Amino acid sequence: MFLLITIGILTFTALVLSFLRFALPTFRFSWLTAAGGALLAWVSMFFWQAGMPARLQFPLWQPESIFRQSPSFVADGTSWAFAFSLVTICVGVIVTSVARENFPGILGWVGTLALTALGVLAVTADNPLTLVLLWTAMDLTEFVAQMRFVQEPRLSERAVISFASRVTGILILLWAGMVSASKGAELDFLSPPPQAGLYFIIAAAFRLGIVPLHLPYASESSFRRGFGTILRAVSAGSSLILLARTPLSGVETPLTPYLILLVAAAALYGGWMWLRSPDELAGRPFWLIGMGALAVASALRGNPLGATAWGCALMLSGSALFLVSAESRWQDKALLIGAWGVSSLPFSLTASGWISSSGRFWYAVPLLIAAQVMLLAGYIRMSRRPLPHAGFENQPIWAKNVYPFGIHIILLTSLLLGWFGWDGARQSGNWVAALFASLLTFGLLRLAVRVRILNPVRAHWVRSAEAAWLDAVYHTIWEGYRTLRRLIALFSSALEGESGVMWTLLFLVLFITFLIQGSP
């Protein structure tokens, strides 16, 4: 199976780089090894098309009475689109590293290749057991990385809240498996039972930071562009794959209208904060919230193809922008291809984004289109933002020629997925909604020149976009938890101290008194 070939190339390259890092620290071709392995894995993705759909099933674990399923993987058009996007971003991260200050960063390349391998396995997972195991590995990796870079207590609390939200998503997916088992059916992602659909959506929303709304990541500036970008892409892709597996009949519940309004509000919030972010790294959490909310809304509207399209656009268009760290010729014009991928115009990557199997939830569509307009306008503005430094002062001439390839291959993949490889390719989509959104985007860009509030927050007196009200809400909850914990500790110390026997006898007397008074 070609899945194993791709995973094998990524893993083998990471192992070779690890060996070179410690055994031959003066080896001069480490970057060439990393880039060659990533590019070879990217080429191997095209061979998946010859054998799809294909399934890889491992033997059952023991005891079978506990483990009714074993790790299983499936390669079809949907998983191929996600996996192809992740491998492309891996290539872009390694190639563009020549323009970053920490070049060469061998350990970063090892982490990038290993995370990509985990991400490819996650998006091809065929049952909850497989996905939960991979989610756990990625969540622990991300949590450790966040706590290593974060210095402020406030940001540490945000990282803990993010980790707790992700664990909640894992528990919801496990609950979906138990619900299916109680009805005598084993849950798999190719043919999930209808009752699992809403669980899939809620689990993905928790992991993306949409429900409940919170900033899912700590301070973005503390992560490097390269490793931070692949970390975000793998985390988002492994969560969004659930939306693409949602059964159409599984979202028709009494809770769906309220949930889609909540998701639309999250999309508006993400789009607004992204539009007013001072730069792409500061706005990266809001890009993920806004685009992720559009994907969740598509799944709620019975459009898993649209959820896949928004998810791939989130990873590809966003990563192309986040990896830009140096000026190069035609770069700002090439990034407009990323905007095309988010535009939902016919034959673009997100052309299937506004397709709906029914006219239900029409009242949420204007809100979602408004969120898309703000996301698209913010993307175009940031793609044309001048960079603070050139980035190539201390790099050889070949680095200046190689660097643009890392950005262009991501943008090329965005174009390619609009035409080839999966069921959402070559779609005309809802061209009326797409054209309306495009016209509003250009109008918003023209209006931003004249209206102060539409400008980035650091361009005038408005405070920095740190989502202070969200931090205040969760800080209040956190303080309430701490107060409750102190009260419980005080009560426990009172019972366990020298006067503990007296308090115990007092409670016993009161309890007996209540029983006597209540007896006839």
Which SSEs are present, and which pair or pack?
Blueprint: H1 2-23, H2 30-44, E1 54-57, E2 72-75, H3 77-96, H4 106-123, H5 128-149, H6 153-182, H7 197-208, H8 225-244, H9 256-275, H10 284-300, H11 304-322, H12 331-334, H13 336-342, H14 365-383, H15 397-417, H16 431-448, H17 468-496, H18 500-518
Antiparallel strand pairs: 1-2
Question: How does this model look, in words?
Answer:
The protein is mostly helical and 520 residues long. The protein folds into two domains: 2-466, no CATH class; 478-518. It is 64% helix and 2% strand. The chain is built from 18 helices and two strands. It has a two-stranded antiparallel ribbon. Helix 3 (77-96) runs parallel beside helix 11, helix 5 (128-149) packs antiparallel against helix 8 and helix 17 packs across helix 18. It is globular and about 90 Å long. Residues 218-222 and 459-467 have low confidence and may be disordered.
